[in-house]
Amino acid sequence: MAERSTAAVDVADNSGDEPLTAKADQSTSDGVAQNRERDTDSEEAQGSGGTESPEKASPPELHSGYKLARRYRLEECVTRLDGFSSWRAVDEKLRRAVGVHLLPADHPRARSVLAAARSSALLGDPRFVQVLDAVEENDLVYVVHEWLPDATELTTLLASAPLEVHEAYQMVSQVAQAMAAAHREGLAHLRLTPSAVLRTSTGQWRIRGLAVNAALRGISSDTPQRTDTEAIGALLYAALTQRWPYDNDAYGLSGLPKGVGLIAPDQVRAGVHRGLSELAMRALANDGATASRHETPCTTPEELVKAIGEMPRIRPPEPAFTAPPDYQRTTYQQGSYGRPAPHMGATQPVAPPPPPLQSRTGKALKWAVSALLIAALGLGSWQLAEALMDRGGESDDTNQTQPTDNNDKDTDKAKPVEPITIQGAQEYYPDGKAQHASDVGLTYDGDSSTYWRTKSFNGGPVLAPYKQGVGIVYDLGSTQSLSAASIGLNYGGDHTAVSLYAADSLSSSAPLSSMTEIAAATTSGQELKISAKEAVKTRYVLVWITAAPYSGADEYSGAGYKQAITDVKFTG
Questions:
Q1: Can you list the pairs that 133-137 forms with residues at least 24 positions away whose Cβ atoms lie under 8 Å?
Q2: Residue 79 forms beta bridges with which residues?
Q3: Strands 254-255 and 243-244, how do they pair?
Q4: Gap between the Cα atoms of 422 and 122, Å rounded
Q5: Fold of the 419-571 domain
Q6: Which residues on adjacent β-strands are paired with residue 473?
Q7: With helix as H, strand as E and coil as C, how does 134-195 read?
């Protein structure tokens, strides 16, 4: 892998690189080699120590509490093999958890690991677990990356059952799009396994170990695009069937029976979505395998993305309606309230009615109730007569048969505006160049002093043709009826233009043409309100900025055309 830069990136997940063995690995004998692959993955996923290969350079004697660069404090070793070790650590400067890969500077793969880490850091795509630092010092090479405490490995998700069809569709779509973007920048994964794919709490799929996992193990491929495409096909196959698409067990999944060959997912498990089954076979149709229904094989992530786009879109399932619990039917006949209803044919004793009030107290109570009823009737009659007299004075039209405007039942009353809670967000940048993807959460944290910002552009206010736009996709948690948005802006001036789009997923690169425009508006101030002519039902909403005002230099960026979003609120 060619080294693209020596710069390190400072951004903010879960350590534990994991694998899809490249096809070259799978072609080795399925005895010792395959067992070694499974052991390695199990150690990384579970955090247990492995056996160090005696032929490789030994890692330095490190321990919990050891600090790198007076900043990264090692906490727990999650794997140790082949001359390198991986740790969960704490960045004491930014007070956050990080993952760290460590190996001696004289390790035969140290240079390639540094080059891979720095190339991966320059990609800056939030669909990948980000490399935060790549350093050589004190006879050590270490790579620092994000640690995602809220993410779950695909390995763990498949331990109990296959993925629901829409989840599988989202997984393969997002992973294929991310890998297509990486290959456009000359980066391959080559170790794309169920343990390398993570689902966050917001439903976003992220990939860890881009380029670095393979470099740590010295894995390469003459056909990297085919290797990664087949790996995505294997991930989809596993997600649909809970089986590994080869005749060996791997990643906690049972393999296919020996001698059967590669069979389509919908032949392995009943109820598998036919379109996704065909897609998995098209991605796996490499090195002699044959697609189940003679479709054209997909040999690159870009071809796989195109094939997914040609499929009918798979919608999320409708929320299931839960009927209220049955309530006990009761009768209100005297003496039976709260008692079980009589069974057919059963003889029930009839309780006699309670005796009438015969005491002095009872007589007084009856007279009091009677007096109150008479007073109420008199008052009601007087009010009714007064209302009729008033109506007679207001209008002489005794033949009025249609109600006036004032008598319409709620026809002109505006429906109450209901706020919609934002459940998650992701920066949207279909050109592959992010702004500040890690700050999107600051736009709905309830704090107007925090914000997500764009970079500073030389031309404007319209950002095109330098950039078509910048924006954020928001997840409303479920399908909502959206009618308006209020957007707080950090910079005023001439002028900010924003459009709202209904999107199909929380994707950072889905084409704008696949979305439906809801409304658009411009402002020269620091607050923009956008209202739709008609409410639109959607779960995902894109806030798309196409023009930004000019502003001077500040502590974060130089002078230029730029904007920052402080608060976003949606209403239904």
A1: 133/8, 133/9, 133/10, 134/8, 135/8, 135/68, 135/69, 136/105, 136/110, 137/69
A2: 86
A3: parallel
A4: 30
A5: Jelly Rolls (2.60.120)
A6: 426, 542
A7: EEEECCEEEEEEECCCCCEEHHHHCCCCCCCHHHHHHHHHHHHHHHHHHHHCCCCCCCCCHH
Q: Which CATH superfamily is domain 152-310 in?
A: Transferase(Phosphotransferase) domain 1 (1.10.510.10)
Cβ contacts of 296 within 8 Å, gap of 6 or more: 282
pLDDT digits (tens, 9 = 90+) for 134-168: 999 989 999 999 999 889 999 999 999 999 999 99
Superfamily of domain 23-146: Phosphorylase Kinase; domain 1 (3.30.200.20)
The Cα 501–Cα 518 span in angstroms is 5
Compute the distance between CA of residue 511 and CA of residue 501 in angstroms, rounded to an integer: 12
Give pLDDT tens digits for 394-429. Answer: 444 444 434 444 444 444 455 567 889 999 999 998
User: Would you say the pTM of this structure is higher than 0.90?
Assistant: no
452 — alpha (psi -120 to 50), left (phi > 0) or beta?
Answer: beta
Helix (H, G, I), strand (E, B) or coil at 22: coil
User: Residue ranges of the domains in the chain?
Assistant: 23-146, 152-310, 419-571
Q: Find the distance separating the first CA and the last CA of the chain, reported in whole Å.
A: 50
CA proximity to 45, closest of 151, 128, 132: 151
Residues in the chain, pLDDT under 50: 1-59, 288-292, 327-350, 357, 393-412
